[in-house]
Amino acid sequence: MVSKLYFGIISASLSARCDALFAASLGRITVFPGDDAYDESRNTFYSQGNHNLELNCNVQPTTIKKVSQVIKILGSSSDLTNWDIGVRSGGHSDWNNNAVYRGVSIDLSKFNQVELTTYSGIPWKQAIEWTGRSAITDVVARIRPATHWGDVITYLEPYGVSVTGGRSGHVGVGGLLVAGGASYNIQQWRLSCDNVVNYEVVLANGNVVQANRFVNGDLFKVLKGGGNNLGIVTRFDMRTFTVPPQGAYGGLAFSPFSSIDANIDSGPPGHQFLVYRYDGPKGGYGLMNMMVSTDGKNNSSNFADFGSKIPLSIVQSISDAGGSYYHSATLSIQPSEAMLQKSAEILQTLVDAAQKAGSTATFNFVHQPLPKMLASVNPGGNILGLDQTLRTNQVLFEARATTPAADGAAKNAIMDSLLLKAVEELRQFSASQPNHSTYVYMNYASPTQNVLESYGASNVAYLRRVAGKYDPTGFFQTRVPGGWKIGRF
Ligand SMILES: Cc1cc2nc3c(=O)[nH]c(=O)nc-3n(C[C@H](O)[C@H](O)[C@H](O)COP(=O)(O)OP(=O)(O)OC[C@H]3O[C@@H](n4cnc5c(N)ncnc54)[C@H](O)[C@@H]3O)c2cc1C
Asked: Could you count the other beta carbons within 10 Å of the beta carbon of residue 222?
């Protein structure tokens, strides 16, 4: 759609880059403030902060050729004025690493398809038989980056297969996979990124390349955790595994905070999440256990508390479209009673401090498995450095605060600082105990946490070398500032 405003209000000096896209016949995929498609795109960011960002224009490529053209045009700019580029897939990030202020947003939302093929690319349309145990298949899921995980899992289910995707249906594919990815199948089939067998990537010079074990192997490795330092991924090919025909089963069990000792001591067998919640003055404190059985055993004793069993595709299709402000920070902590007790204590101190500061925030302290086998099954296969930091089983800890859309910058800044203080206290406690891990998971981290440094010096050096090889002009370091950048330290 041609912009209503382009020929009117927006001056060439404010949007020289957008002018260049227009001049190159990309006007049909470039939208401006005032266009319906511009508002639709902005409103689908998860974080309220990004709903408010004002862009010069938003370009929504429909083909890989167009992504390449866009990158070539923006990359060849000699315009030295202060403008930036944001790259977004699902837009589900908690903060503005996927957006820009007064710049150009490359919005991949039209890249939202999934198909099953053989490894040689022949479309696959048959259901694969369940033999009683989940097994890797010979078919791959070719997934475009802005597909939501709920749609991916729902598409795959009739074929009897699945992938290591995100657990909330609305989360996007692109951001989760370039960072790592924790799924329901993490204990069996590892991190989500370890299941990507091929990437299709548009590089800084606009060239489209494949990266896999055989071609561009260095790029293949660093895309597994390297974030948006390397290029724009336009397709992820993931290996698939069989799932039982009756689906995986799972659900949530809620209990009062007073039952915390029982939850920490034993917990329901097989649970994957233990969440401490504070739901505001009315909801108060509570505990939530998420339990999932991925092997089709719907009579598992895990589910004794549930009246009915829900197939996982339904659980994943539950959308969380966001619209508030989110504050998050993460750690790897030891799976000990002392750590879990300390985490509960710190949550209560944090809630008290937030209330004193006049905040109406709600909080989740999420504890989920980070098994040590992630380090050994694929040594050197990704850039995360888990062989150095994950020598024992750990808990992936995430502290989250949600503040209302009406909260202004000052209140949000206070919340950021309170949350970081709380997480730092827990980190110090963890560091004082045996088997402390320094790994920081990119997708749960605060923008101020040292994610790339946590991969270890040799991985940082390798990432820097590979980023320099595939992006010698530093386009993704300087023009795409969102996220953790290897060029920043
Ligand atoms: C409710 C909720 C549930 C979640 N559940 C999980 C979960 O189960 N497991 C888990 O691991 N994480 C989970 N997350 C975190 C989630 O992985 C991140 O928010 C992730 O970034 C979302 O992906 P996206 O495509 O929506 O990212 P976006 O917000 O679009 O992008 C995030 C970052 O990735 C970069 N990026 C995006 N697409 C590309 C691409 N194609 N090429 C290069 N760079 C790209 C962007 O530039 C940006 O820096 C959850 C988050 C929320 C809010």
From this structure: 27
Token pair 């004793």 in the structure block, residue: 301
pLDDT tens, residue by residue, 449-476:
999 999 999 999 999 999 999 999 999 9
Q: Is the CB of 145 under 6 A from ligand 1?
A: yes
Higher pLDDT, 298 or 125: 125
Q: What is the pLDDT of residues 277-334, one digit of tens each?
A: 999 988 899 888 877 777 766 655 555 554 444 444 444 444 566 889 999 999 999 9
Distance CA 403, CA 95 (A): 13
Q: Are β-strands 104-107 and 114-118 bridged in parallel, bridged antiparallel, or unpaired?
A: unpaired
Which pLDDT score, from 0 to 100, does residue 323 have?
Answer: 84
Contact 318, 274 (CB under 8 A): no
Q: How far is the CA of 205 from the centre of ligand 1 (A)?
A: 24
Within 10 Å of residue 461's Cβ, how many Cβ atoms? Answer: 11
Q: Kindly state if the Cβ of 251 falls inside 6 Å of ligand 1.
A: no
> Is 178's C-beta closer than 6 angstroms to any atom of ligand 1?
yes
Q: Is the confidence at residue 166, as pLDDT, over 60?
A: yes
Q: Residue 30 forms beta bridges with which residues?
A: 59
Note the pLDDT of residue 263. 58
Confirm or reject: Cβ of 242 under 6 Å from ligand 1: no
Domains and CATH numbers, the chain: 16-107 (3.30.43.10), 114-243+457-488 (3.30.465.10), 249-455 (3.40.462)
425 and 346 Cβ atoms separated by less than 8 Å: yes
> What is 123-170 written as a DSSP string?
B--SPPPP-SS--EEEEEEEE-TT-BHHHHHHHHGGGTEE----SSTT
Instruction: Determine the distance separating the centroid of ligand 1 and the alpha carbon of 258, expressed in angstroms.
Output: 34
CA distance 158 to 402: 36
Q: Is the CB of 150 under 6 A from ligand 1?
A: no
Quick check: helix, strand or coil at residue 20? helix
State whether residue 480 is helix, strand or coil: coil
Q: Give the DSSP letter of residue 483.
A: S
Q: Which residue has the higher pLDDT, 257 or 204?
A: 204
Residue closest via CA to ligand 1's atom 37 equals: 175
Distance, CA 177 to ligand 1 centroid (Å)?
7
Q: Is the CB of 483 under 6 A from ligand 1?
A: yes
pLDDT at 269: 43
First to last CA, the chain: 41
Full-model pTM = 0.93
